[in-house]
Amino acid sequence: MRDLQGKSYTYEALDTGTITDMAIRDKLLANMMAPKTIELKKGAQVMLIKNMDESLVNGSLGKVVAFMSETQFDIWDKHPDVLDETIDDDELDETSKELRNTIKRTYSRNKDPLPETGKLYPLVQFSVADGTFREILVQPEEWKIELPSGEVQAQRSQLPLILAWALSIHKAQGQTLERVKIDLKKIFEKGQAYVALSRATSQAGLEVHNFDKSKVMAHPRVAQFYNSLYSVNKALEHPKVAKPLPKKAKDYEEDFMIAEMAELARSKTIDFDEEEEAMAAYG
Fold first, then answer.
1. Is 152 helix (H, G, I), strand (E, B) or coil?
2. Is 191 left (phi over 0), alpha (psi -120 to 50) or beta?
3. Cα dihedral value 64, 66, 72, 77, nearest 10
4. Residues 108, 109, 111, 115: what is their CA dihedral angle, to the nearest 10 degrees?
5. Helix (H, G, I), strand (E, B), or coil: what is residue 177?
6. Pairing of strands 121-127, 61-68
7. Is the distance from CB of 19 to CB of 152 less than 8 angstroms?
8. Which one is predicted more confidently, 214 or 63?
9. What is the pLDDT of residues 203-239, one digit of tens each?
10. Does the structure show a pLDDT above 90 at 46?
11. Which of 93, 257, 280, 283 has the fewest CB atoms within 10 Å, counting from its CB?
C-alpha cells in the first residue's frame, strides 16, 4: 500500500559454531554470500542466494512487496487481494479487509515484531523461468562450515537474500531481462560481451554504456571451428568433390581389423607369427 512505502526492516544474521574465537569464525563466515546484516523495504529488488526448489534457485530475481508474519501470510495466501493497491477496501471481503488493516498497523508501528503477529519477514515476488511470478515469505536459512566428522565449525542463519540492483555478468548467465543497463567498461574476457548483451529480450529494453568494439571478442578456436564448418560445407557443394558413400558391413569389418592390428603392434606383446595367424583369421 502506498502509505507504507518508507519503512525499512533490518535483519541480523545469527552466527554459531564450535569455533569460539570470533575473529576466526567471522573470517570463515565472510566467504559466505549470506550477509551479516541486510536492510530491506518495500520495493527493494533482491536476489535469492540459495536453491529453494526447481523454479526458485540461486540467482532468481524478485521484489519485496510486503512484510508479514507467518500467521498473516497463511491468511494472505488465501486472500491475495489485500496487497492489490487497485482494489479499494470496500471491495474486499471481511477477512481480507481485516488483514489489510493489520498490515497497515504493522507498518505504522515504530517497533517490530508486534506481539500479536510475531516476527515479520519479507514477502518477495520472484520472476521464474516460464515468465510467471511466485510469491513466497522468505525466512532464514542456514549455511554451514563443517569438518568431515560432521562437527559444525561455523554456521550462519540469515535470510537467503541480497540486494540486487546490479549483477555481475557471471551471475546474470541464464537470465532473461526485459529492461537492462549494461556497462562494458570492464570486459576482460572473450565471450563476456555476448553473455551480457544476450540477457536482454529486446533491443528496446537494452541500454549499453561504455561500448567499445574491441571489447566484443570471440575466442579464436570458436572462429576456427565455424570457419572449418563453412569450408567443409562449401567443399561438399563443389561438383568435383564426391560426397562419401555410406559404408557397407564389410568396410566396418576391415576398419575393425586394422584398428585391432594397430593396437597389437603398439602393445609389442605378440610376435610376427601371431600377427599372421590373426590376419588369416580375418581372411
1. strand
2. left
3. -60
4. -120
5. strand
6. antiparallel
7. no
8. 63
9. 888 998 988 888 888 888 888 888 887 666 677 776 6
10. yes
11. 283
Per the structure block, which three cell numbers stand in for 116?
500479536
First vs last Cα of the chain: how many Å apart? 88
Check pLDDT > 90 for residue 25: no
State the Cα–Cα distance between residues 243 and 237, nearest whole angstrom. Answer: 9
State the burial class of residue 41 (Cβ atoms within 10 Å of its Cβ: 0-12, 13-18, 19+): middle
- Alpha-carbon distance of 172 to 189, in angstroms, equals 15
- Which cell numbers in the block locate residue 250? 564389410
Grid coordinates representing 72 are: 498473516
Please give the Cα distance from 260 to 265 (Å, whole number).
9
Give residue 172's pLDDT: 76
- Cell readout for 253 is 569389418
Strand partners, 182: 208
CA 198 to the chain's CA centroid: 16
Residue 41, pLDDT score: 92
Distance CA 26, CA 47 (A): 23
Tell me how far apart the alpha carbons of residues 166 and 220 are, in angstroms, rounded to a whole number.
31
- As a whole number of angstroms, the distance between CA 117 and CA 75 comes to 12
Selection from 51, 152, 81, 67 nearest residue 113 by Cα: 67
Contact (CB, 8 A) for 150 and 163? no
User: What are residue 185's phi and psi, to 5 degrees?
Assistant: -60, -40
Tens digits of per-residue pLDDT, 93-144?
887 788 777 777 665 554 444 444 568 999 999 988 787 899 999 999 999 9
Provide the grid cell at 43.
Answer: 520495493
